[in-house]
Amino acid sequence: MHYNENADRPQATTSSGELRYLLWFPKYKQGDFSVRPLKATPAYDYIETLQEQLFKHVVENPEPYQELLQQVYVPPPLCSQYDRPDESEAVARHKSRFAVIDDDEDN
Questions:
Q1: Organism's domain of life (predicted)?
Q2: Phi first, then psi: what are they for 24, rounded to 5°?
């Protein structure tokens, strides 16, 4: 919503009407810079409309929305797909960043 509301913002200007720019120092340029146009301040007008709709429709009669919410599928968190490492092993790997820890020590 925020992006849609602010996607076509004009370039900011000074009080005298000159266009404003931003000096940007990305790491990959190793101290060199890029110049970007500075956009005007973002608008948040959509929030007021959203709040009005929320209080007008949902707060007065929440039952139909509660039933719809129960039907929405919520997937499990992405982290549940992976096995959690043993904490002491994870700490040991972190402390010795450049050391290789073999999982098969029997070989």
A1: Eukaryota
A2: -125, 130
Separation CA 90–CA 78 (nearest Å): 19
Contact 33, 25 (CB under 8 A): yes
- The pLDDT assigned to 21 comes to 93
- Express each pLDDT in 65-83 by its tens digit: 778 888 889 888 887 887 8
Output the average pLDDT for the chain.
80
Query: Please, what's the b/e burial string for 60-87 (b: 16 or more CB within 10 A of its CB; e: otherwise)?
Result: eeeeeeeeeeeeeeeeeeeeeeeeeeee
Please write down the HEC assignment for all residues of the chain.
Answer: CHHHHHCCCCECECCCCCECEEEECCHHHCCCCEEEECECCCCCHHHHHHHHHHHHHHCCCCHHHHHHHHHCCCCCCHHHHCCCCCHHHHHHHHHCCCCCCCCCCCC
